[in-house]
Structure formats: C-alpha cells, structure tokens
Design a protein that fits this description.
binds zinc ion, Rossmann fold, 17 strands, 12 helices
C-alpha cells in the first residue's frame, strides 16, 4: 500500500476529516498549484464526502512577488488586496487571482462531489486562537532563532500592519517584548510613525509569513487532520519548508499536548517542457487560464485525470511528457 492509500484508510473511520491546503494569490496559477488543491479534493473524495471537507487558506497577507510589488524599492509592503492587477487599476491582484481560483474550486467540488471552503489569511489572523498560537511561538525562548537563525534575539519575524494605510514596514525583524510588537510605518505618504501593537489585540492586523500552516492547523477550529503541501515544500535535505513546519508543529504541541498533529501529504513537482520546475514566477508551465482556454468548461475534468493518475501511483515527480500524454494525447 503506498502512503496515499495508507492515509486514506487511516482517516476513513473518523467522524469528520478536515483537509487543509494553502495558496498564495500571486502570479499565474500553474498545474502544480492546481494539483495540490486537486489532491486535497481527491483525498476528501476517497476518505468519504460525507465526513471530509477541503479547506483552503488564501494567503493574502504573504509577501508579494517582486514583480508585483518591489519591497526594497518602495521601502514598505503592500499586500495582495491593495496591489492593482497588472493592466487593471480598478481590480486588486487578490480579486484578479482568486476569480480563477473560485471557479476552479467549484469545478473540483463538483468533479469529486466534495465540500470546499475557503478563508483568507487576513480574516484568519484576527482570531484569538490564532494569535495565542503566535504568542506561544514568540514567547518561547530561542524558538524564533531556532527556526530562522538570522532573526536577532529580542526580535520576531512578524509584520504589524499600519491601521491608517494598510501597509507594513519592509524590515523583516520586529522588536518584541512581552506580547508587544514595536514597529513604525515606513510608507512616506502616511502620517503614522512609530507604533506598538499588542499581539492579542485582534482588531489590529499582523502579517506572518511562513508560520500560518501549523498555526491554522493546530490552533484554529476546525483543526486540520491533514495538510496537503505543494511539491516544493519537500525539496532540499535538512532545512526544507516541511522541516520548519514540523518544528513549529512541535512548538504548538508543547503548548497544547492533547491536540494531535496533522498528517502531511506532499504533492508532486511538475516539470515544464524545458525540464525545469514549473513555477508561478517563471510562468513556464501550463497555467489555469491556458488550460481553460484549451479545454473550455471541461478543464477541471482533464486536470482530474492527471490528479487521479498521480494519487493512484503516489508519484512525487511528474515530467511534462506524462502530463502531455494524459491531457492532450489521451494515452492513459
Ligand atoms: Zn501607515
């Protein structure tokens, strides 16, 4: 039995199953991103649509790509909801990106007969349980430096957002003292200068990059039973994203030992025609818009065939030829 089949059978006896998946709404959504969401949907289908729900967190408070917003050049951070979409000043990058995603999720939901819910990180970070998890990390001596050795002692990797202009300072290390973040607004057009933020004050916003998966999964109801990550998370040897996530999960476990850890399922890595990894920043892969143009409304079914092939075989690396054979030549 491969690890996917093993996971399905271990979950099938549960009363309810929550499958978490995250998405950064920048760039074009490529086949790898779609397969990660698809794998979450397929897992819910296999475990049982009556007990399983796929829950996507749209990470709108993650760092934007340099092509969207150059943090060094501007000296401060705007997030996806306040960056205009390319060539369209009246639509935000967030709305532009999530328009296609909503349509795709609806398609997946129909194709696999499952429930899909979505939530934005900007809403999630206002929950008290999320903030408590965050505070646990910040208050644990040496935890921050263990995760990110470049963060100086007395500082944390968090970006409090200015309430007046909705931006964050570009500097990655924020001084932190007993529950309070100390920062300043670096947007030259804003009149706010230095400000403090109580981490437990949920009426103020804070962006935290990298932490949100284990925080959401272990602190926020409904807690995740499984988290599906994209193939990139498993790359490297010692300091992969998964290794960092596991460290954070361990910290959360110390704070709340009775809550079980989510199972981790890592999706495959897709390779483009030229043999390099498909990536949103390179835009070298099959993206959602292209697939929709090619297949029309049947595009989700066609992606579903690739997802089925991957989950049945437990594949971790998928060459372009396989995708080409399955989707365009109907070889399988
Ligand atoms: Zn400001």
């Amino acid at each position: 039995m491969n690890s996917y089949a093993h996971l399905v059978s271990s979950l099938s006896d549960n009363e309810d199953v929550n499958v978490a998946v995250g998405l950064r709404p920048s760039g074009r959504i490529h086949l790898g991103n779609m397969a990660t969401m698809g794998l979450a949907a397929r897992l819910c289908h296999d475990v049982g649509p009556h007990i399983a729900t796929a829950r996507i967190t749209v990470c709108d408070y993650d760092l934007p790509d340099r092509s969207d917003w150059d943090i060094r050049k501007n000296g401060f951070i705007r997030y996806f909801d306040s960056i205009p979409a390319p060539g369209n000043d009246s639509t935000s990058l967030l709305d532009h990106a999530t328009e296609g995603i909503d349509d795709f999720l609806e398609g997946l939901s129909k194709h696999y007969g499952i429930k899909f819910t979505s939530q934005k990180l900007s809403d999630l970070q206002r929950l008290e349980s999320y903030r408590q998890g965050l505070r646990n990390i910040f208050d644990t001596q040496g935890a921050m430096q263990n995760l990110y050795p470049k963060v100086p002692e007395g500082c944390v990797l968090a970006y409090p957002i200015c309430g007046d202009c909705n931006t964050a300072g570009a500097h990655p290390n924020t001084p932190y003292r007993s529950g309070t973040l100390i920062t300043s607004c670096t947007n030259p057009e804003c009149s706010v200068e230095e400000f403090d933020m109580d981490i437990m004050d949920c009426s103020k916003d804070v962006a935290v990059h990298f932490f949100i998966d284990p925080l959401r999964d272990k602190c926020v109801e409904p807690r995740a039973d499984v988290h599906v990550f994209g193939g990139d998370y498993g790359l490297g040897h010692n300091n992969t994203e998964i290794a960092k996530i596991t460290k954070i999960i361990d910290l959360m476990t110390t704070a709340a030992p009775d809550i079980s850890n989510p199972e981790i399922l890592i999706g495959p890595i897709f390779y483009a025609r030229d043999g390099t990894k498909m990536s949103k920043s390179k835009n070298n892969g099959l993206n959602l818009q292209k697939l929709k143009q090619h297949f029309g409304n049947d595009y989700v079914e066609n992606i579903g065939i690739v997802i089925d092939h991957i989950s049945e075989g437990g594949y971790k690396h998928v060459d372009y030829k396989i995708v080409d054979d399955i989707m365009f030549k109907n070889v399988y």
